[in-house]
Amino acid sequence: MKTKIYLSMLTCVALALFSCSSDDDKSNSDTSSTFEESYFTIQDGEFKTGSMPESNSTELSITSVDGNSTILPGGSNNISIAAEGDPTHTLIGIEGQSGYYQLPYVNSAGRSLSSTVTYDIVQILIGQGAESDFTIVIAVIDEDGNVSEYVYLVVTIIEAGTGLLQVNCSWNKENDVDLHLKEPNGEVIYYANATSQNGGMLDIDSNAGCSIDGINSENIFYEDSSILEAGEYEVMVDLWSNCDIPNNTNYTVTVYFDGQLINVTEGSNPFNDSFTPADDSNGPLSIAKFIIGADRPSAVENEFNNINTVKSYRFHFDNERPQDDVLSPEKL
User: Fold this and answer.
1) Which pTM was predicted?
2) 18, 90, 263, 286: which has the fewest Cβ within 10 Å?
3) pLDDT (tens digit, 9 = 90+) per residue, 156-197?
4) From 3.90.1310.10, 2.60.40.2470, 1.20.120.450, 2.140.10.10, which CATH number describes the 2-157 domain?
5) Where are the domains of the chain?
């Protein structure tokens, strides 16, 4: 579910948690690649080894944090941070683990919450090798090196397919966003055609028909044994229903091939944008295209693909009807 953490709920144990002894800081040798695989990466952040700095300021503070508390391997999480004072950077790490990211604190234009509180959004990309629940720790720092108290966001990992090719869409509101992937042969994988003839599979269909499950993510993947046709693939997203959410919905789409973000011929990867409530009257929006070459190996050993049994969430398809006309029972 979506989690909001306010200052009144925060504990003041950051000094005890992050003042490091050699016994507690057993992961000092962790590299950024290990951290990225098991937890997350932040593309515009600088990875730093060692423990996060101690809190030393009460005037500089985080007043709220808003982010999804359910995540999946290869997905993303947009974390909104409201801070008071004059922060210049954000620090984000994992409770009990060495290593963290430092990135500029960017006040979103026109999103000031008051004369003293500013608002920033940090996009984290969850590692395809993430397997266990963890707690994200967040602080802000100013130009004088003052560090706020830490806030905590506990995230729960759900099982999802990664495979040789993975396409994921994650968003930050409790509404029904649909992910579509068009294969080179023209077949489209989406909620009404959850498994293609080539073996591509929509294994997570979240918030279908506004039946809110709190996952806020859709996922398409191909196992290594699937047929991955050579040619152009097209990624589309659709705000199928806004589910009476009054605000805009931020979403992120990621495409991984053989454990790496694939280069796209149109759009960007990751792709970040937002839906307005009125967008639920529009159809699917094309946001990225990419090409799989004909010389691709038929099967690639992928260290990130450790999932043998995939949990399924709301498979909706009826191959007896044209794709454009098919609605799941929850979407009729």
Assistant:
1) 0.80
2) 263
3) 999 999 999 999 999 999 999 999 999 999 999 999 999 999
4) 2.60.40.2470
5) 2-157, 165-318
